[in-house]
TrEMBL record:
Protein name: UDP-N-acetyl-D-mannosamine dehydrogenase
Reaction equations catalysed: UDP-N-acetyl-alpha-D-mannosamine + 2 NAD(+) + H2O = UDP-N-acetyl-alpha-D-mannosaminouronate + 2 NADH + 3 H(+)
EC number of the protein: 1.1.1.336
Residues of the UDP-glucose/GDP-mannose dehydrogenase C-terminal domain: 303-395
Length: 413
């Protein structure tokens, strides 16, 4: 079986390598010459636990190109970004992937969409473009198999998680199921393409709304002078309650984006967009805390520790650190940034000693494990203030070193 995977990013590349490692001949396609060159040199364009070993295993069955070629299966795993001004999905890449496949599409081929799209996109946008091949859907098979893997655990989740597969018709669903069975150990649940599109968006929206609730709880608790972290621990002792963790906001290319795909065609949704607004406002809340702590300090410098959108990854896409940085600079603060995982950011990244030397306030924005173990005694700051927006530090250790510790949601304001 020959599979052509379009899009060699965080989802497409691991998926392509998993298929190759399980016996398929895979052609990976990326329009970015730099990605193709990198893979052709034998290197990976990004890091992810286990990906190096998998690459070694799969290499002999994996070729990389800048355009597709005839295959049995075409898999689309390209980005579907959000237009920041309109909050509407940008389908340019999935459209272009479908257009690139059409000239190579033959009767009996299967096209799989993994990219996240608004409900109805397969029928309205992708299938009609594929039919420009002259082959009608039904004569080629089509299924949506939304990805569900979490960055940092991509490979174990791709193989271990349950999957949803929604086909254009029964043949499509069954064929796609058989192909994913080669490496998926979780259950595969079958449905139609439109439902699969909706389910994927529901999953990420559910998480976003629950994080927004935790963030609202944090602010309400502070108004009541209560420590939200203790309150959450206690509430979660209830058998049917799971409150998530408050924080400086929600980032990443999925949870901060996908809820808008669900609402873009709706005239009545409110909770989903309100949750987005709450999560997007969290950098303002962290800045509000900083402003209170820094009042009276002349020409303050703050040190942002962690610009990645979440712990132990280097991905900064949609990271709340961007907004916090802008707000802090607009406030007149000098800002220094440190992140041991991130390669680039909107502001120069420095090593820890440089980023904290002479600082007036350390702000922890990302829950990297290495920050949990930070030794405050080694930091040459000017003012001993720290805002822990993730509640990850050893607070006693920091207090013992003379730091005033302010945890987001601790109720001490
Ligand atoms: N976050 C909090 N509090 C929490 C949990 C997360 O503030 O209690 C923040 C994180 O710091 C981060 C953001 O939310 O900024 C999202 O992180 P995440 O770990 O919840 O999720 P992602 O974006 O890395 O991956 C999600 C996953 N979806 C769900 O868990 C429902 C993953 O399974 C999807 O495959 C992925 O989106 C995707 O690609 O759609």
């Amino acid at each position: 079986m020959k599979i052509c995977v379009l899009g060699l990013g965080y989802i497409g590349l691991p998926t392509a390598l998993l298929f190759a490692a399980h016996g398929a001949d895979v052609v990976g396609v990326d329009v970015k010459q730099s990605v193709v060159d990198c893979l052709n040199r034998g290197s990976l364009p990004f890091t992810e636990p286990g990906l190096d070993d998998l690459y070694g295993e799969a290499k002999s069955r994996f070729l990389v190109r800048t355009g597709p070629e005839a295959a049995d299966v075409f898999l689309i795993a390209v980005p579907t970004p959000l237009d920041p001004a309109t909050k509407v999905s940008n389908l340019a890449y999935v459209k272009s992937a479908a257009d690139m496949i059409a000239p190579h599409l033959r009767r009996g081929n299967l096209v799989v969409l993994e990219s996240t799209v608004p409900p109805g996109t397969s029928e309205r946008v992708i299938i009609p473009r594929l039919e420009k091949s002259g082959v009608a859907v039904g004569d080629f098979l089509y299924a949506h198999c939304p990805e569900r893997a979490i960055p940092g655990r991509t490979l174990s989740e791709m193989t271990g998680n349950n999957r949803i597969i929604g086909g254009y018709d029964r043949d499509s669903t069954d064929r796609a199921t058989a192909i994913y069975r080669t490496f998926v150990r979780g259950q595969i649940y079958q449905t139609d393409a439109r439902t699969a599109e909706f389910v994927k968006l529901m999953e990420n929206t559910c998480r976003d709304v629950n994080i927004a609730l935790a963030n609202e709880f944090a602010q309400l608790a502070e108004e009541c002078r209560i420590n939200v972290w203790e309150a959450i621990t206690l509430a979660n002792k209830h058998p049917r309650v799971t409150v998530l963790n408050p924080g400086p906001g929600v980032g990443g290319h999925c949870i901060a984006v996908d809820p808008w795909f669900l609402t873009e065609n709706s005239t009545r949704c409110r909770m989903v967009s309100t949750a987005r607004e709450i999560n997007d406002s969290m950098p303002n809340y962290v800045l509000h805390i900083a402003r209170g702590l820094l009042a009276g300090i002349r020409d303050p410098t703050i040190s942002i520790l962690g610009v990645a959108y979440k712990g132990n990854v280097g991905d900064t896409r949609e990271s709340p650190a961007f907004k916090f940085l802008q707000l802090a600079e607009n406030e007149g603060y000098a800002v220094r940034c440190h992140d041991p995982y991130a390669a680039e950011f909107a502001h120069p990244l420095m090593d820890l000693p440089k980023a904290t030397a002479g600082s007036d306030c350390i702000v922890i924005l990302t829950d990297h494990d290495c920050f949990r173990r930070l030794d405050p005694a080694t930091l040459q700051v000017r003012t001993k203030l720290v805002i822990d927006a993730r509640n990850i530090l050893d607070h006693e250790k920091w207090s013992d070193q003379g730091f005033a510790v302010r945890v987001l949601g601790d109720g001490s304001s």
